[in-house]
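Hypothesis: this fold can be encoded by more than one sequence.
Test: take the C-alpha cells below, design a sequence, compare later.
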C-alpha cells in the first residue's frame, strides 16, 4: 500500500521550483510502508549496504558496510536484521555511536553489477554486539540511471587483514583529493528532523565531482525520478554525509558537512545534462579508514545515461566512413564493411561496442541508430556492422538496406561500449539470438585470439537464418553450437542444461530478442547464478507484429481501458489520467511495476525477477497473454 502523501515541505519546494510536481506525484506511488516481496531475496544477495545516520551534534554521516551476502537480511517485509558477528566497517565508524543516540537510518541496497537498487528508511529497534534490528518505515525502488556496473569477488582471508588506523581531519590531503578527482561513484546521506534519514547514490564520469578547494566540492545534479528526496532534505536540514569508496585499495573516505543547492548556473560543457543544477558541499570533517572486509571490484562499464560532456570539438566524436563492401549474410541481414574516408586507422574499440550511424527516415528527417560492431577489435583498418531489415521498424534499417551502396559515405559517432567482457572470467558462455549475434561475434573473436576458455550458442528461427555461420565456425571450431527454434527437426537451445552448473568466475553474455534475454535471466536466477555474472544487451522493446488490443480493468478506479495494439499499457493509463510512477519506459527500472490481480501478463521487461513477476508487471513494456488484465490501480 503506497503512502498517500510522502513528501515534506523541502521536497515539495524543490519539486515546485523545477516544475516537476505532477511527475513527483505520479512517482510517489512507488513509495510504500513495506518492502516489495520480490526484493526480500535481493537484499540477502548483496555484499554491500550504504547507511545514513545522524550524530549527537546533528551532523549527518554516510557509512558503507561490506560482507558476505546475507549479513543483511529481511526477517519479513517490514523488518531487517543486520548481523554484527563479524566486523563490517572500521571500528570507529560514527554509525555505531550514532545509533545509540538517534535511531533514524536510511539504507541503500545497490547491486552494481545489475544496476538494481532499493532505498529503505526506518528506525533501529535494537542494537547489540551481535545484531541490529531495523523497522521499515518506507521503501521504494530507484531507477538504474548513472550507476557504473562493477563485478565483485570476495578476497581470500589472507588479503582481508588490514589494521591501518583510521584518521580524521577537516582539510582534504593530496591523496584524498586524487581519490575524489578520479571517482565515478559516491553515496550521499541526508536527513529531515521529522521524516528521518535517507541514503542515495550519485554517479558520473571520472571527475564529475569538482574540487573547488581542499574543503569544498561541487557535484552536478542530473535529471532523476522527480521526487527530489536528497535535495528536499538539503532545503529542510542543510547537513549531509558523503562517502567515497576506493575500490582498488579497500578504503573509505567519509565526509560530513553542509550542502547548498546552486540553481540555474551556466553549464557550457553540459555537465548537468541540461538541469543547470549543482550542489555545493562544504566539508566540516572527514574520516578515512580501511575496511576490515574487502572485495575485489572490476569496472564493467559506465552508465549510458551519464550526460556527454561538450569538451571535444564535434570532429573528434564523429567519423566519416566509406562503405567498402555490402554482403548478404542471411535473408534479412546484410553486413556493411566501412573504412575511414581519409584512409587512416579507426579509433580502437572493445568487444561489445556499438556505433551510432546517421540514417535518413522515410519522412526525410535524420536520426541516429545503434549498430554493434562485429569485426575483430584488433583490426583498426575497418569497422563492420550487421543490419537486420525491419519492414515494420522505424526506417533506419531499410535506409541502409535500400539506399546505401558500396562507395557511399555515412557518418557515425566513435564507438561506445555498454556491453563489455568481464576481464576476470575463468570461462565465458556466449548466447546469441538472431541479429544479437553481432556483438557476440566481436566477443568471440577476442576470446579466441586471446586463447581464453569459452563456448558459444547461437539460435535463429531456422538454420538458414543463422548469419555469419561460416565465419563463426572458422573462429570457434567445435566450441560453437547452432540451434533452430522453429525447425521441428532442428536442435533447440536447452537453457536448463546449459546453465545447470553455476560456478564462480563463469560469465554469461546474451544478446537477442527480449524474450530470449528474459528466459536466460529467469533460468539463471532459478538455478542460483549471481546476477553480476549475467550480462545482456537488448535492442529495445518494440511492439511485436502479433500484438493485439487488450482490455485493462483498474480495480481501485473501477475503470476499464482499451489498449490498442500499437500503444503501451502505461501510455494508455497516463492518457486516461491514471497516476502511475514511471521513468525509463523501456522495462529497465522497475518504477512502473504494478500489482496484477487478474489475467496473465506477457512479461517483456528486463528488470523484475521471478518473485516480482509472480505478482507484478512493468506496464511500460509488458502486455497480456490473453485479452485482458486486472491491475491494482
Amino acid at each position: 500500500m503506497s503512502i498517500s502523501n510522502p513528501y515534506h515541505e523541502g521536497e515539495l519546494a524543490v519539486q515546485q521550483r523545477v516544475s516537476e510536481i505532477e511527475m513527483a506525484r505520479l512517482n510517489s506511488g512507488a513509495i510504500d510502508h513495506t518492502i516489495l516481496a520480490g526484493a526480500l531475496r535481493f537484499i540477502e544477495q548483496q555484499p554491500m549496504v550504504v547507511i545514513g545516520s545522524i550524530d549527537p551534534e546533528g551532523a549527518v554521516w554516510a557509512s558503507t558496510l561490506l560482507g558476505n551476502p546475507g549479513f543483511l537480511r529481511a526477517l519479513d517485509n517490514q523488518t531487517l536484521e543486520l548481523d554484527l558477528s563479524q566486523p563490517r566497517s572500521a571500528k570507529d565508524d560514527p554509525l555505531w555511536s550514532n545509533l545509540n543516540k538517534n535511531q533514524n537510518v536510511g539504507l541503500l541496497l545497490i547491486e552494481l553489477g545489475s544496476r538494481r537498487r532499493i532505498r529503505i528508511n526506518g528506525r533501529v529497534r535494537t542494537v547489540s554486539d551481535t545484531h541490529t534490528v531495523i523497522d521499515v518505515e518506507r521503501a521504494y525502488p530507484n531507477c538504474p540511471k548513472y550507476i557504473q556496473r562493477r563485478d565483485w569477488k570476495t578476497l581470500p582471508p589472507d588479503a582481508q587483514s588490514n589494521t591501518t588506523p583510521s584518521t580524521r581531519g577537516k582539510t582534504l590531503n593530496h591523496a584524498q583529493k586524487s581519490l575524489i578527482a578520479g571517482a565515478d561513484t559516491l553515496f550521499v546521506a541526508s536527513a529531515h528532523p521529522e521524516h528521518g534519514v535517507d541514503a542515495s547514490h550519485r554517479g558520473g564520469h571520472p571527475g564529475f565531482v569538482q574540487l573547488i578547494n581542499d574543503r569544498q566540492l561541487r557535484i552536478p545534479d542530473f535529471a532523476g525520478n522527480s521526487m527530489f528526496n536528497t535535495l528536499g532534505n538539503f532545503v529542510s536540514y542543510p547537513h549531509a554525509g558523503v562517502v567515497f569508496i576506493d575500490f582498488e585499495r579497500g578504503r573509505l573516505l567519509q565526509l560530513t558537512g553542509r550542502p547548498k543547492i546552486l540553481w540555474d548556473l551556466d553549464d557550457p560543457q553540459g555537465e548537468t545534462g541540461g538541469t543547470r543544477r549543482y550542489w555545493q558541499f562544504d566539508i566540516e570533517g572527514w574520516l578515512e579508514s580501511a575496511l576490515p572486509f574487502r572485495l575485489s571490484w572490476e569496472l564493467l562499464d559506465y552508465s549510458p545515461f551519464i550526460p556527454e560532456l561538450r569538451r571535444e570539438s564535434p570532429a573528434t566524436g564523429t567519423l566519416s566512413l566509406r562503405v567498402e563492401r555490402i554482403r548478404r549474410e542471411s535473408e534479412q541481414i546484410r553486413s556493411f564493411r566501412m573504412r575511414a574516408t581519409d584512409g587512416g586507422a579507426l579509433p580502437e574499440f572493445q568487444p561489445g561496442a556499438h556505433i551510432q550511424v546517421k540514417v535518413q527516415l522515410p519522412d526525410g528527417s535524420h536520426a541516429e541508430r545503434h549498430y554493434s560492431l562485429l569485426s575483430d577489435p584488433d583490426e583498426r583498418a575497418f569497422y563492420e556492422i550487421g543490419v537486420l531489415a525491419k519492414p515494420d521498424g522505424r526506417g533506419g534499417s531499410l535506409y541502409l538496406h535500400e539506399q546505401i551502396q558500396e562507395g557511399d559515405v555515412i557518418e557515425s559517432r566513435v564507438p561506445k561500449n555498454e556491453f563489455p567482457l568481464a576481464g576476470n572470467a575463468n570461462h565465458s558462455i556466449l548466447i546469441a539470438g538472431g541479429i544479437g549475434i553481432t556483438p557476440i561475434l566481436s566477443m568471440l573473436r577476442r576470446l579466441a585470439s586471446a586463447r581464453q576458455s569459452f563456448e558459444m550458442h547461437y539460435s535463429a528461427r531456422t538454420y538458414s537464418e543463422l548469419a555469419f555461420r561460416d565465419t563463426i565456425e572458422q573462429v570457434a571450431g567445435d566450441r560453437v553450437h547452432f540451434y533452430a527454434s522453429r525447425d521441428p527437426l532442428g536442435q533447440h537451445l536447452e537453457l536448463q542444461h546449459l546453465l545447470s552448473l553455476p560456478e564462480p568466475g563463469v560469465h554469461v553474455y546474451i544478446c537477442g530478442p527480449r524474450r530470449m534475454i528474459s528466459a536466460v535471466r529467469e533460468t539463471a536466477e532459478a538455478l542460483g547464478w549471481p546476477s553480476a555474472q549475467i550480462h545482456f544487451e537488448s535492442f529495445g522493446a518494440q511492439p511485436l507484429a502479433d500484438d493485439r488490443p487488450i482490455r485493462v480493468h483498474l480495480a481501485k478506479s473501477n475503470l476499464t481501458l482499451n489498449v490498442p495494439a500499437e500503444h503501451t499499457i502505461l501510455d494508455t493509463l497516463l492518457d486516461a489520467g491514471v497516476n502511475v510512477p514511471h521513468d525509463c519506459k523501456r522495462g529497465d527500472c522497475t518504477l512502473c511495476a504494478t500489482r496484477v490481480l487478474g489475467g496473465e501478463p506477457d512479461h517483456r521487461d528486463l528488470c523484475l525477477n521471478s518473485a516480482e513477476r509472480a505478482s507484478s508487471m512493468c506496464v511500460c513494456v509488458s502486455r497480456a497473454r490473453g485479452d485482458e488484465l486486472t491491475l491494482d490501480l
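The chain has 13 helices and 36 strands. Residues 437-449 form the longest helix (13 residues).
Hypothesis status: open.
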